[in-house]
Amino acid sequence: MRGGGRRIAEGTAEGTRSDRGGATESAATDAPAMYEIQRPGRAIVLMLVAMLGFAAMDGVSKSLATHLSIPQILWVRYIFYTAFVVVMLRRPGLQATLRSRQPWLQLGRALLIIVENGLFVIAFTMMPLADMHAIAAASPLIVVALSVPLLGEKVGLRRWTAVLIGFVGVLVIVRPGFQSLDWRFAVAATATASWALYQILVRMCARTDSSDTTWAWTAVVGLAATSLVGPFVWVWPDLHGWILLLAIAALGTLSHLALIKALGYAEAGALQPYGYTLLVWAAVIGFIMFGDIPDAWTITGATIVIASGLYAWHRERIRAQDKP
Fold first, then answer.
1. Contact of 284 with 112, CB cutoff 8 Å
2. DSSP sequence for 67-116
3. What is the model's pTM?
4. Of the residues 2, 186, 204, 305, which has the fewest C-beta atoms closer than 10 A?
5. What is the distance between the alpha carbons of residues 23 and 20, in angstroms, rounded to a whole number?
6. Residue 20's beta-bridge partner residues?
7. Listed residue (112, 44, 97) closest to 216, CA to CA
């Protein structure tokens, strides 16, 4: 439930998938497809609101993780997230929606996103929000690279060039040789790679299962798995802690709703570039809540990563239009 590009992946339907940090990927996602009258202006506003909500949720998670354990935070998030999914899928019914032709793949995918969510929260506690999101913005480029061996897709020279340049951008952010490469960046890189692999698994699931089924599995497996740990590491929050927990739940639910509505008013592919605004919002939230200001290296590297991701997205759109 994280990453600029990450967020779109959790809300789009099969066809176009953008890496929630801004870069895009074509694939199915975790939210039900909702098609309404095309209103691109309203869709863009809702998309920007969703990215702001996700950035705020990340900021609250970073603050809360200094007082409560991460399994406890994830457990509460999944309780509210599952309730949201149940409401959204009330028409077909949760039990019917859970029927999958690839249950083991769905199980592995849903477990992976739990690990990925935990890694992102850990990373948030060790580095500024903007730095983490700048690194995570490279996940769509990782998806492009992984799609060749895992999905059998063809990637042209131009997109491979975009991938390589994007990784150079990540190196600029991490700047090896100018400072010691500590394990904070290893956690950030692992979280980003996990998010990219997750998107690949979503694409695999989309070959046989609907996006509603994938969404339902994410919620149910997530709640079940975190329930095995969350209650046993529970620390009763004070009033401030409860406010933050409820804020995370509210921000996550409302942001997902805004994202789903946005995707009902415009094509996911048209909205994917706006997912990169999550990085901008993360910088703003990081400054307001923690006084963090991205340095020149982070801004330069993020610019390179975003430009590479947008170019890869552009080439993907051209390739899709050229298909008969």
1. no
2. TS-HHHHHHHHHHHHHHHHHHHTTTT-HHHHT--S-HHHHHHHHHHHHHH
3. 0.82
4. 186
5. 7
6. 5, 6
7. 97
What DSSP element (H or E) covers 24?
strand 24-25
**Beta pairing partners, 5:** 20
Q: Are 221 and 107 in contact (CB under 8 A)?
A: yes
Alpha-helix runs per DSSP H in 238-276? 239-265, 268-271
Burial state string for 167-180 with b = 16 or more CB within 10 A and e = fewer than 16: bebbebbbeeeeee
The residue written with tokens 């170019």 in the block is: 311
Tell me which residue has tokens 């730095």. 131
Backbone angles phi, psi at 53, to 5 degrees: -65, -40
- For residues 23-33, b (16+ Cβ closer than 10 Å) or e, as one string? bbbbbbbbbbb
**Domain boundaries in the chain?**
4-322
**Using CA atoms, how far apart are residues 255 and 307, in angstroms rounded to an integer?**
25
Question: How far is residue 267's CA from residue 16's CA, in Å, rounded to a whole number?
Answer: 8
Tell me, what amino acid is at 14?
E
Measured distance CA(52)–CA(276) in Å, rounded: 11
Distance CA 173, CA 227 (A): 36
One-letter amino acid for residue 175 of the chain: R
Q: What residue type is assigned to position 134 of the chain?
A: A
